[in-house]
Amino acid sequence: xxxxxxxxxxxxxxxxxxxxxxxxxxxxxxxxxxxxxxxxxxxxxxxxxxxxxxxxxxxxxxxxxxxxxxxxxxxxxxxxxxxxxxxxxxxxxxxxxxxxxxxxxxxxxxxxxxxxxxxxxxxxxxxxxxxxxxxxxxxxxxxxxxxxxxxxxxxxxxxxxxxxxxxxxxxxxxxxxxxxxxxxxxxxxxxxxxxxxxxxxxxxxxxxxxxxxxxxxxxxxxxxxxxxxxxxxxxxxxxxxxxxxxxxxxxxxxxxxxxxxxxxxxxxxxxxxxxxxxxxxxxxxxxxxxxxxxxxxxxxxxxxxxxxxxxxxxxxxxxxxxxxxxxxxxxxxxxxxxxxxxxxxxxxxxxxxxxxxxxxx
Length: 361
Prior knowledge:
Blueprint: H1 13-20, E1 23-24, H2 37-40, E2 44-48, H3 50-58, E3 63-69, H4 80-91, E4 94-100, H5 102-109, H6 113-130, E5 138-142, H7 147-156, H8 162-169, H9 177-191, E6 204-209, H10 213-225, E7 236-240, H11 266-275, H12 284-290, H13 298-307, H14 311-323, H15 328-358
Parallel strand pairs: 3-4, 3-6, 4-5, 6-7
Antiparallel strand pairs: 1-2, 2-7
């Protein structure tokens, strides 16, 4: 069972794909017009019904991309993946929606609605704009402030019972009714863009980490149950790998020692990169003789996900590491320099983006 709130990155992706019927993204990538870097490099590894979205893109037809953020902590480098995907979808003709999950944050993390709004603006939207997402072209809303969303969630809850929620989410120790109800709000988030208010009968894709798949499965099941009342199309989805934390566990805002936050100073960024666990050997001698293991290296992941756009340059790093001619200290310094350059540019753009972020909500 996958729990969206306590998921561990140690779970086997292949096993989850087989268990829940998620298809390999590599099998359809040849059908995608100008696939993104994350797609080409296998960071996006699985999907449900993305074939339909690929056809819409190739035919220059509109579609919906819906994402969400739970305003519960600081934004870290792993969250950049979501922004990169939304930018790609916008470029390819999507109608993009972003739900600020302040109701979920209240139900699961006891974060007040006022605090949730402040975190959403000053931590997330602030950085989304700085990272290049044009929010003027995106529908952004707070769950708690959307009456159509809450009306839809209430209607949909009619055909969901406690047994089904427990089967999907567990909830064995939950006594919080708001927590039980929060997934129905998520379902409404996914389906609202297809309502008469926005883009009826329009295919939808939800780019998520594998921990969010319970929400996708619940939504797809509810679409079937309400086929005679709503003309919804079952949402498609893509699944991206999590970037590893500095200690090789999942990078998490709630575990500061695992994360590189987008507001970290340049000195802190460098120290964190240099403290990260790598795929290096126990000794310099072994490293030169046996080579490193970039596929087990947090630093290499930073290059793969965010810092090297040219495939040939990334291939060179991988090869030299495997051959033992690129040592961890040298690689860490080069990676820290690249990340500091990214953060330096991000800080400049943030100075220009705060007013835009504040005016969104």
